[in-house]
Amino acid sequence: MADLFSSLDGASTIYMWVLPLMFVSFLLTQPQLWSRQMNPTNKNIIFYTWFSKANNRFNLYPLLLMVLFMFLLTNNLMGLTPISYSLTSNLMSMLSLAVLSWLFLLSSGYVYSPIKSLAHLAPQGAPMVLMPFLVIIELISLLIRPLTLTVRLIANISAGHIVLALIANTMTSLFHHPFLFLMFLCSVGYTLFEVFVSIIQAYIFTLLISLYATEHP
């Protein structure tokens, strides 16, 4: 039987990768679902921040951001189903995704223009006396970006799963208790809250990646 922290295990199944790809493929092959029924203004608002932040040289980068968002959102929502495993709760999986996204932008910038990429480590207008310390601080902040992306996502998603598991265990122990209905309402309300958290965390992860892309020369 799975314990309270089973969502942090390294085991996973193939559907975690297949279902998000199937979902994205379905959306791309059914344009009437998002082109006819969705107002163009509303559709532009959803992705305006990503598209405006990304560098114009990345012609496919907005599409990659959209796929990344759908992948994270689908896995976050799949993790809310009972007796399921969320890939976004796994440390190594999300750390690998964050490192690959960060390394892609970093390596592309240094290959395209090493001088301009190194210039980001030295803030413009800073005093020369403080420049060595500022370079060290900027370098540290650059290197810990994958870790902060991973910890932020895993902490929020895993905490919600643990709370839902605690509520479910409490409902099991209060099966014949008058407070069972109250616990059921709490479970439904917190599940809806976790749906909102899943959307927000997927958006924040993608938004931060798009902000990092603005530093590309």
Would you write up a description of this structure?
There is one protein chain. The protein is an all-alpha fold and 217 residues long. It has one domain. Helices cover 71% and strands 0% of the residues. The protein contains nine helices and no strands. The protein has helices at 15-29, 32-35, 40-53, 61-78, 91-112, 114-119, 131-143, 145-173, 180-213. The protein is elongated. Residues 10-14 have low confidence and may be disordered.
Radius of gyration, whole Å: 21 Å
Structural class: mainly alpha
Count up the domains: 1
Strand content: under 5%
| Contiguous runs where pLDDT drops below 50 for at least 5 residues | 10-14
> Averaging pLDDT over every residue, what do you get?
75
One letter per element, helices H and strands E, the order comes to HHHHHHHHH
Distance between the termini: 51 Å
Strand element count? 0
Biggest sheet overview: none
User: What is the overall number of helices?
Assistant: 9
Shape: elongated
Roughly what percent helix?
A: over 70%
Membrane topology: Multi-pass membrane protein
InterPro entries: ATP_synth_F0_asu, ATP_synth_F0_asu_AS, ATP_synth_F0_asu_bact/mt, F0_ATP_A_sf
Protein name: ATP synthase subunit a
Organism: Camaena poyuensis
Q: What is the compact description of this entry?
A:
The chain is an all-alpha fold. Helices cover 71% and strands 0% of the residues.
